[in-house]
Amino acid sequence: MLIGTPKEIKVHEYRVGLTPVGVKELKAHGHDVLIQAGAGAGIGLYDEAYVAAGAEIVGTAQEIFARAEMVIKVKEPQVVECAMLRPGQVLFTYLHLAPDPDQTQGLIASGCIAIAYETVTDARGGLPLLAPMSEVAGRMSIQAGAHAMEKAQGGNGVLLGGVPGVAPAEVLVIGGGVVGYNAARIAVGMGAHVTILDRSLARLNYLDSLFDGRLNTIYSTVDALEYYTAQSDLVIGAVLVPGAAAPKLVTRAHLRAMKPGAVVVDVAIDQGGCFETSRATTHQNPTYVEEGVVHYCVANMPGGVARTSTFALTNATMPFAVALANKGYRKALLDDVHLREGLNVHGGKITYKAVADALGLAYQPAMEALA
Fold first, then answer.
1. Going by CATH, does the domain composed of 2-120+306-370 fall within 3.40.50.720?
2. Residue 149 pLDDT class (50, 70, 90 cuts)
3. Does 223 qualify as catalytic in the annotation?
4. Is 270 a catalytic residue?
5. Model-level pTM?
6. Marked catalytic residue, from 31, 32, 96, 100
7. Catalytic residue among 254, 270, 295, 346
8. Domain residue spans in the chain?
Protein backbone atom coordinates (compact mmCIF):
# COMPACT_ATOMS: atom_id res chain seq x y z
CA MET A 1 0.00 0.00 0.00
CA LEU A 2 1.09 3.58 -0.64
CA ILE A 3 0.79 5.56 2.59
CA GLY A 4 1.13 9.33 2.91
CA THR A 5 1.60 11.75 5.79
CA PRO A 6 1.12 15.49 5.16
CA LYS A 7 2.34 18.33 7.33
CA GLU A 8 -0.28 19.40 9.87
CA ILE A 9 -1.74 22.84 9.15
CA LYS A 10 -3.76 23.59 12.28
CA VAL A 11 -2.43 26.65 14.16
CA HIS A 12 0.71 25.76 16.16
CA GLU A 13 0.34 22.05 15.43
CA TYR A 14 3.78 20.48 15.11
CA ARG A 15 2.92 16.82 15.69
CA VAL A 16 3.30 14.44 12.75
CA GLY A 17 1.39 11.27 11.91
CA LEU A 18 4.43 9.09 11.18
CA THR A 19 7.95 9.15 12.59
CA PRO A 20 11.00 7.79 10.76
CA VAL A 21 10.69 4.69 12.96
CA GLY A 22 7.13 4.25 11.72
CA VAL A 23 8.26 4.63 8.11
CA LYS A 24 10.88 1.94 8.64
CA GLU A 25 8.28 -0.38 10.17
CA LEU A 26 5.89 0.06 7.25
CA LYS A 27 8.71 -0.41 4.75
CA ALA A 28 9.64 -3.67 6.49
CA HIS A 29 6.10 -4.88 5.75
CA GLY A 30 6.53 -4.06 2.06
CA HIS A 31 4.72 -0.72 1.90
CA ASP A 32 5.78 2.61 0.39
CA VAL A 33 5.56 5.89 2.29
CA LEU A 34 5.25 9.51 1.18
CA ILE A 35 6.13 12.29 3.63
CA GLN A 36 5.50 15.95 2.91
CA ALA A 37 8.68 18.03 3.06
CA GLY A 38 9.15 19.51 6.52
CA ALA A 39 6.31 17.51 8.09
CA GLY A 40 8.34 16.65 11.19
CA ALA A 41 10.83 19.52 11.20
CA GLY A 42 9.08 21.35 14.03
CA ILE A 43 9.98 18.56 16.45
CA GLY A 44 13.42 17.73 15.09
CA LEU A 45 12.36 14.95 12.71
CA TYR A 46 14.02 16.18 9.55
CA ASP A 47 13.52 15.01 5.99
CA GLU A 48 16.93 13.31 5.96
CA ALA A 49 15.82 10.94 8.72
CA TYR A 50 12.69 10.03 6.76
CA VAL A 51 14.71 9.40 3.61
CA ALA A 52 17.12 7.20 5.55
CA ALA A 53 14.12 5.21 6.79
CA GLY A 54 12.93 4.69 3.20
CA ALA A 55 10.34 7.42 2.66
CA GLU A 56 9.88 9.51 -0.46
CA ILE A 57 9.77 13.23 0.29
CA VAL A 58 7.20 15.18 -1.72
CA GLY A 59 6.73 18.92 -1.88
CA THR A 60 3.02 19.45 -1.29
CA ALA A 61 0.03 18.11 0.59
CA GLN A 62 -1.82 18.01 -2.73
CA GLU A 63 0.59 15.35 -3.98
CA ILE A 64 0.21 13.33 -0.77
CA PHE A 65 -3.58 13.30 -1.04
CA ALA A 66 -3.52 12.68 -4.79
CA ARG A 67 -1.23 9.64 -4.61
CA ALA A 68 -1.66 7.95 -1.22
CA GLU A 69 -4.09 5.10 -0.70
CA MET A 70 -4.07 5.76 3.04
CA VAL A 71 -3.41 9.14 4.69
CA ILE A 72 -2.12 9.05 8.28
CA LYS A 73 -2.44 12.36 10.16
CA VAL A 74 -2.77 13.65 13.69
CA LYS A 75 -5.51 16.29 13.70
CA GLU A 76 -8.85 16.35 11.93
CA PRO A 77 -8.65 17.38 8.27
CA GLN A 78 -9.12 21.09 7.74
CA VAL A 79 -11.46 22.38 5.01
CA VAL A 80 -8.75 22.46 2.37
CA GLU A 81 -7.73 18.90 3.24
CA CYS A 82 -11.28 17.54 3.16
CA ALA A 83 -11.52 18.91 -0.38
CA MET A 84 -8.48 16.82 -1.39
CA LEU A 85 -9.82 13.50 -0.10
CA ARG A 86 -11.27 11.12 -2.67
CA PRO A 87 -13.69 8.16 -2.75
CA GLY A 88 -12.23 4.97 -1.30
CA GLN A 89 -9.18 6.70 0.20
CA VAL A 90 -8.47 5.74 3.82
CA LEU A 91 -8.00 8.54 6.35
CA PHE A 92 -6.56 7.49 9.72
CA THR A 93 -6.43 10.34 12.25
CA TYR A 94 -8.28 12.06 15.09
CA LEU A 95 -11.67 13.28 13.89
CA HIS A 96 -13.88 14.38 16.84
CA LEU A 97 -16.89 14.68 14.56
CA ALA A 98 -19.76 15.04 17.06
CA PRO A 99 -19.31 18.81 17.60
CA ASP A 100 -18.12 19.49 14.04
CA PRO A 101 -20.87 19.31 11.40
CA ASP A 102 -18.79 21.09 8.75
CA GLN A 103 -15.96 18.57 8.88
CA THR A 104 -18.48 15.73 8.95
CA GLN A 105 -20.17 16.99 5.81
CA GLY A 106 -16.76 17.39 4.14
CA LEU A 107 -15.88 13.77 4.88
CA ILE A 108 -19.29 12.56 3.71
CA ALA A 109 -18.95 14.48 0.45
CA SER A 110 -15.45 13.12 -0.16
CA GLY A 111 -16.54 9.46 -0.16
CA CYS A 112 -13.46 8.55 1.87
CA ILE A 113 -13.05 5.88 4.54
CA ALA A 114 -12.49 7.87 7.76
CA ILE A 115 -11.18 5.93 10.76
CA ALA A 116 -10.98 7.93 13.99
CA TYR A 117 -8.23 7.32 16.52
CA GLU A 118 -10.50 8.41 19.37
CA THR A 119 -13.13 5.67 18.95
CA VAL A 120 -10.84 2.65 18.43
CA THR A 121 -11.31 0.39 21.47
CA ASP A 122 -9.44 -2.44 23.18
CA ALA A 123 -10.40 -5.66 24.94
CA ARG A 124 -10.60 -3.89 28.33
CA GLY A 125 -13.07 -1.30 27.06
CA GLY A 126 -10.40 1.39 26.86
CA LEU A 127 -9.53 3.81 24.06
CA PRO A 128 -5.90 2.93 23.27
CA LEU A 129 -5.32 5.63 20.65
CA LEU A 130 -6.92 8.37 22.72
CA ALA A 131 -5.23 7.39 25.98
CA PRO A 132 -1.71 8.66 25.15
CA MET A 133 -2.99 12.13 24.32
CA SER A 134 -5.33 12.04 27.32
CA GLU A 135 -2.31 11.37 29.53
CA VAL A 136 -0.47 14.31 27.99
CA ALA A 137 -3.49 16.63 28.14
CA GLY A 138 -4.25 15.70 31.74
CA ARG A 139 -0.72 16.52 32.84
CA MET A 140 -0.59 19.67 30.73
CA SER A 141 -3.92 20.90 32.10
CA ILE A 142 -2.38 21.58 35.49
CA GLN A 143 0.66 23.45 34.20
CA ALA A 144 -1.56 25.46 31.84
CA GLY A 145 -4.02 26.15 34.63
CA ALA A 146 -1.28 27.14 37.08
CA HIS A 147 0.11 29.62 34.54
CA ALA A 148 -3.35 31.05 33.84
CA MET A 149 -3.84 31.58 37.59
CA GLU A 150 -0.99 34.08 37.61
CA LYS A 151 -2.24 37.64 38.02
CA ALA A 152 -0.57 38.87 34.82
CA GLN A 153 -2.56 36.23 32.89
CA GLY A 154 -5.87 37.41 34.35
CA GLY A 155 -5.95 34.84 37.15
CA ASN A 156 -6.49 35.28 40.88
CA GLY A 157 -2.79 35.25 41.78
CA VAL A 158 -2.86 32.02 43.78
CA LEU A 159 0.18 29.72 43.76
CA LEU A 160 -0.93 26.17 43.11
CA GLY A 161 1.03 24.57 45.95
CA GLY A 162 0.94 27.50 48.36
CA VAL A 163 3.87 28.08 50.74
CA PRO A 164 4.35 27.41 54.46
CA GLY A 165 1.76 29.47 56.28
CA VAL A 166 -0.37 30.07 53.15
CA ALA A 167 -3.00 27.61 51.92
CA PRO A 168 -2.54 25.90 48.55
CA ALA A 169 -4.97 26.27 45.66
CA GLU A 170 -8.23 24.34 45.56
CA VAL A 171 -8.27 22.20 42.41
CA LEU A 172 -11.39 20.40 41.17
CA VAL A 173 -11.10 17.65 38.56
CA ILE A 174 -14.41 16.68 36.95
CA GLY A 175 -14.04 13.10 35.74
CA GLY A 176 -11.73 10.41 37.08
CA GLY A 177 -10.67 8.74 33.82
CA VAL A 178 -7.29 8.93 32.11
CA VAL A 179 -7.31 12.74 31.86
CA GLY A 180 -8.60 13.19 35.39
CA TYR A 181 -6.11 10.79 36.95
CA ASN A 182 -3.17 12.43 35.21
CA ALA A 183 -4.35 15.92 36.12
CA ALA A 184 -4.78 14.90 39.75
CA ARG A 185 -1.36 13.25 39.81
CA ILE A 186 0.38 16.48 38.76
CA ALA A 187 -1.77 18.72 40.96
CA VAL A 188 -1.17 16.57 44.04
CA GLY A 189 2.53 16.45 43.23
CA MET A 190 2.63 20.26 43.10
CA GLY A 191 1.02 20.49 46.53
CA ALA A 192 -2.51 21.58 45.62
CA HIS A 193 -5.61 20.51 47.52
CA VAL A 194 -7.39 18.30 44.99
CA THR A 195 -10.95 16.99 44.68
CA ILE A 196 -12.10 14.54 41.98
CA LEU A 197 -15.76 14.15 41.02
CA ASP A 198 -16.91 11.00 39.26
CA ARG A 199 -20.09 8.92 38.99
CA SER A 200 -18.35 5.54 39.20
CA LEU A 201 -17.95 4.37 42.79
CA ALA A 202 -15.52 1.70 41.60
CA ARG A 203 -13.34 4.37 39.97
CA LEU A 204 -13.50 6.60 43.05
CA ASN A 205 -12.49 3.64 45.23
CA TYR A 206 -9.56 2.91 42.91
CA LEU A 207 -8.38 6.55 42.93
CA ASP A 208 -8.74 6.78 46.71
CA SER A 209 -6.55 3.71 47.13
CA LEU A 210 -4.06 4.88 44.51
CA PHE A 211 -3.56 8.30 46.10
CA ASP A 212 -3.71 6.93 49.63
CA GLY A 213 -5.98 9.69 50.90
CA ARG A 214 -3.99 12.57 49.41
CA LEU A 215 -7.06 13.85 47.54
CA ASN A 216 -10.82 13.99 48.02
CA THR A 217 -12.95 11.58 46.00
CA ILE A 218 -16.54 12.79 45.76
CA TYR A 219 -19.52 11.19 44.04
CA SER A 220 -20.67 13.58 41.33
CA THR A 221 -24.12 15.07 41.86
CA VAL A 222 -25.68 18.39 40.88
CA ASP A 223 -25.18 19.58 44.45
CA ALA A 224 -21.54 18.45 44.62
CA LEU A 225 -20.74 20.11 41.30
CA GLU A 226 -22.32 23.36 42.45
CA TYR A 227 -20.50 23.33 45.81
CA TYR A 228 -17.02 22.37 44.64
CA THR A 229 -16.87 24.64 41.60
CA ALA A 230 -17.65 27.60 43.86
CA GLN A 231 -14.78 26.66 46.19
CA SER A 232 -12.18 26.09 43.47
CA ASP A 233 -9.32 28.18 42.15
CA LEU A 234 -8.81 25.80 39.21
CA VAL A 235 -11.35 23.46 37.60
CA ILE A 236 -10.30 20.78 35.09
CA GLY A 237 -13.03 19.48 32.76
CA ALA A 238 -12.06 15.87 32.10
CA VAL A 239 -15.30 14.18 31.08
CA LEU A 240 -15.64 11.92 28.04
CA VAL A 241 -18.45 10.13 26.27
CA PRO A 242 -16.62 8.18 23.51
CA GLY A 243 -17.34 9.64 20.09
CA ALA A 244 -20.19 11.80 21.36
CA ALA A 245 -20.44 15.48 22.26
CA ALA A 246 -19.30 16.19 25.82
CA PRO A 247 -22.12 16.95 28.28
CA LYS A 248 -22.31 20.58 29.42
CA LEU A 249 -21.88 19.93 33.13
CA VAL A 250 -20.69 23.36 34.31
CA THR A 251 -23.21 26.08 33.54
CA ARG A 252 -22.89 29.83 33.33
CA ALA A 253 -24.63 29.99 36.72
CA HIS A 254 -21.87 27.81 38.21
CA LEU A 255 -19.25 30.19 36.83
CA ARG A 256 -20.98 33.24 38.30
CA ALA A 257 -20.61 31.64 41.72
CA MET A 258 -16.88 31.02 41.28
CA LYS A 259 -14.09 33.22 42.68
CA PRO A 260 -13.08 36.15 40.44
CA GLY A 261 -9.95 35.16 38.52
CA ALA A 262 -10.51 31.42 38.98
CA VAL A 263 -9.48 29.29 36.01
CA VAL A 264 -11.22 26.53 34.06
CA VAL A 265 -9.33 24.21 31.70
CA ASP A 266 -11.65 22.34 29.33
CA VAL A 267 -9.81 19.22 28.18
CA ALA A 268 -13.08 18.00 26.59
CA ILE A 269 -13.10 20.88 24.10
CA ASP A 270 -12.30 18.55 21.17
CA GLN A 271 -15.71 16.99 21.81
CA GLY A 272 -17.44 20.36 22.21
CA GLY A 273 -16.43 21.07 25.81
CA CYS A 274 -18.05 20.40 29.18
CA PHE A 275 -18.43 24.04 30.26
CA GLU A 276 -21.41 25.94 28.88
CA THR A 277 -19.16 28.93 28.15
CA SER A 278 -16.38 26.99 26.38
CA ARG A 279 -15.24 27.80 22.87
CA ALA A 280 -12.17 26.41 21.20
CA THR A 281 -8.96 28.43 21.44
CA THR A 282 -5.44 27.97 20.07
CA HIS A 283 -1.92 27.89 21.49
CA GLN A 284 -1.50 31.34 19.93
CA ASN A 285 -4.43 32.80 21.92
CA PRO A 286 -5.18 30.19 24.57
CA THR A 287 -7.41 32.02 27.05
CA TYR A 288 -10.35 34.35 27.37
CA VAL A 289 -12.42 35.60 30.30
CA GLU A 290 -16.13 35.07 30.77
CA GLU A 291 -18.15 35.67 33.95
CA GLY A 292 -14.89 36.76 35.57
CA VAL A 293 -13.38 33.28 35.06
CA VAL A 294 -10.33 32.59 32.88
CA HIS A 295 -11.05 29.89 30.28
CA TYR A 296 -8.27 27.77 28.74
CA CYS A 297 -9.85 25.77 25.90
CA VAL A 298 -7.02 24.87 23.50
CA ALA A 299 -8.37 22.24 21.13
CA ASN A 300 -5.01 20.60 20.43
CA MET A 301 -3.48 20.87 23.88
CA PRO A 302 -0.96 18.00 23.44
CA GLY A 303 0.40 19.86 20.40
CA GLY A 304 2.06 22.20 22.87
CA VAL A 305 4.50 19.41 23.71
CA ALA A 306 4.56 18.10 20.17
CA ARG A 307 7.67 15.93 20.33
CA THR A 308 6.57 13.95 23.38
CA SER A 309 3.03 13.71 22.00
CA THR A 310 4.14 12.49 18.58
CA PHE A 311 6.15 9.60 19.95
CA ALA A 312 3.44 8.67 22.47
CA LEU A 313 0.77 8.71 19.76
CA THR A 314 2.68 6.86 17.04
CA ASN A 315 3.71 4.11 19.47
CA ALA A 316 -0.02 3.43 19.89
CA THR A 317 -1.20 3.88 16.29
CA MET A 318 1.53 1.89 14.53
CA PRO A 319 0.09 -1.65 15.04
CA PHE A 320 -3.25 -0.51 13.64
CA ALA A 321 -1.63 1.30 10.71
CA VAL A 322 0.33 -1.86 9.86
CA ALA A 323 -2.85 -3.97 10.01
CA LEU A 324 -4.71 -1.56 7.71
CA ALA A 325 -1.80 -1.55 5.25
CA ASN A 326 -1.15 -5.30 5.33
CA LYS A 327 -4.75 -6.46 5.03
CA GLY A 328 -6.44 -3.53 3.32
CA TYR A 329 -8.94 -1.50 5.30
CA ARG A 330 -11.94 -3.79 4.69
CA LYS A 331 -10.35 -7.03 5.91
CA ALA A 332 -8.56 -5.24 8.75
CA LEU A 333 -11.84 -3.78 10.00
CA LEU A 334 -13.75 -7.05 9.56
CA ASP A 335 -11.04 -9.00 11.40
CA ASP A 336 -10.77 -6.65 14.38
CA VAL A 337 -13.90 -5.45 16.17
CA HIS A 338 -11.85 -2.92 18.14
CA LEU A 339 -10.38 -1.29 15.05
CA ARG A 340 -13.84 -1.41 13.45
CA GLU A 341 -15.12 0.81 16.27
CA GLY A 342 -12.90 3.50 14.76
CA LEU A 343 -14.83 3.60 11.50
CA ASN A 344 -16.80 6.88 11.56
CA VAL A 345 -17.48 7.58 7.87
CA HIS A 346 -17.62 5.11 4.97
CA GLY A 347 -18.46 6.06 1.41
CA GLY A 348 -20.68 8.99 2.33
CA LYS A 349 -22.40 7.36 5.32
CA ILE A 350 -21.93 7.89 9.08
CA THR A 351 -21.00 4.57 10.65
CA TYR A 352 -20.59 5.61 14.29
CA LYS A 353 -23.91 5.96 16.10
CA ALA A 354 -22.91 8.59 18.66
CA VAL A 355 -21.78 10.89 15.84
CA ALA A 356 -24.98 10.32 13.85
CA ASP A 357 -27.10 10.98 16.94
CA ALA A 358 -25.19 14.12 17.89
CA LEU A 359 -25.54 15.63 14.42
CA GLY A 360 -28.99 14.31 13.55
CA LEU A 361 -27.71 12.34 10.56
CA ALA A 362 -28.60 8.92 9.21
CA TYR A 363 -26.61 6.03 10.68
CA GLN A 364 -25.37 2.96 8.87
CA PRO A 365 -23.82 0.20 11.02
CA ALA A 366 -20.17 -0.43 10.21
CA MET A 367 -20.75 -4.11 9.38
CA GLU A 368 -23.49 -3.16 6.94
CA ALA A 369 -21.22 -0.60 5.27
CA LEU A 370 -18.39 -3.12 4.96
CA ALA A 371 -20.58 -5.96 3.64
1. yes
2. very high
3. no
4. yes
5. 0.91
6. 96
7. 270
8. 2-120+306-370, 131-299
